[in-house]
Amino acid sequence: MATRIPSLNWLRVFEAAARTESFARAAAQLNMSAAAVSQQVKALETQLGTPLFHRHAHAVTLTEAGRAYLPSVQQSLLMLETATTGLFGESREQRLFVQSVLLFAHGVLARGLPQFQAGHPQVSLALSTGNMAADFANQFTDLQIVFGNPSLFGTEGDELLREVLYPVAPPEIAAQIRSPQDLFRFPLIEVSTHRASWVQLFENLRLSHRQARYFFADNSLMAAELSAQGMGIALARAPASDAVVRASGLVRCLPEVEVPGREAYHLIYPDRGAMRPAARLFRDWLLDYVRTG
Fold first, then answer.
1. Which H helix or E strand runs over 233?
2. Four-point Cα dihedral 238, 137, 129, 219, nearest 10
3. How confident is the model at residue 197 (pLDDT cuts 50, 70, 90)?
4. What family does the Swiss-Prot or TrEMBL record give for this protein (predicted)?
């Protein structure tokens, strides 16, 4: 009876192409040609009897079947790597998958990752981002960085960072805000996927927000850019938002107005005892980095 278990080479190529969303970038990572990557992906699709990618002019994206298949392939490859390491010693390269809330990845991780890679050149890190809880469901990762209730995402974890909320805007708008009531003169840009909001700020200031006009964005980076373009006032979520606030040229509207956030960013993992060496290195580095940075 013929087996439907695909070639390990095909699976490695599929995983790289799915992670990079490009046959050319996958080829560069695997020291192959883009044509060879395309041929091996096609061979895998033929064996499985279903397309795994949508082909576009300069990129590829996973089909529904491909998205469903990817976590199992990644987990299987890492289990094989872990078993090989356990039996035959460390390989030159240790792979690590980390998924993070976009704002934390942009404002905190990005500036620290060069330090991590310089100290641990043997770790090949793949970083992906998300905003909504659904982005973090049914994904295979070693570690996840989430905001809010950590029990919704994993069984074990560490608190990383809390936040402070305050209004920011372009200097010409900020100069017109002399009291909290002046905020209502402008649209307030709200991030629909973030659990902390303008309502929390107004509750802390004991202000009714019925007269507020909201414009909704799906992430804090977009909110900052919209504010920079004159769409309204954004809500900073320091320190994770510090980089995008600076880059967008935004300034604080009311220096005396700030509210401590009610929730925090957490590093989540299934089982600390079963953590792979690369994940353990990253956890130790990240806990120290957020404490001292």
1. none
2. -50
3. confident
4. Belongs to the LysR transcriptional regulatory family.
**Mean pLDDT of all residues in 270-276:** 81
The C-alpha angle with vertex 71 and arms to 100 and 41, in degrees rounded to 5, equals: 115
**Cβ neighbours of residue 227 closer than 8 Å, sequence gap 6 or more:** 168, 169, 170, 189, 233, 234, 248, 250
Q: How far apart are CA 154 and CA 135, in angstroms?
A: 14
pTM: 0.71
Mean pLDDT along residues 144-164:
85
Q: Which amino acid is at 133?
A: A
Cα-based torsion angle of the residue sequence 269, 271, 277, 280 in order, rounded to the nearest 10 degrees:
50
Contact yes or no for 265/147 (Cβ under 8 A): yes
Show the tokens assigned to 160. Answer: 């990383």
Q: How many residues are listed for the chain in this entry?
A: 293
SS3 (DSSP) at 261: strand
Pairwise CA distance, residues 201 & 74, whole Å: 42
Cα 126 to Cα 117: distance, rounded to the nearest angstrom: 12
Per-residue DSSP letter, 235: E
Burial profile 249-280: b = 16 or more Cβ within 10 angstroms, e = fewer:
ebbbbbeebebebebebbbbbeeeeebbebbe
Confidence of residue 1 (pLDDT cuts 50, 70, 90): very low
Angstrom distance (rounded) from CA 282 to CA 132 = 23
Virtual CA dihedral for 68, 72, 73, 76, nearest 10 degrees?
180
For the chain, how many helices (H) and strands (E)?
A: 11, 11
Q: Do the bridges between strand 188-191 and strand 123-130 make them parallel or antiparallel, or are there none, so unpaired?
A: unpaired
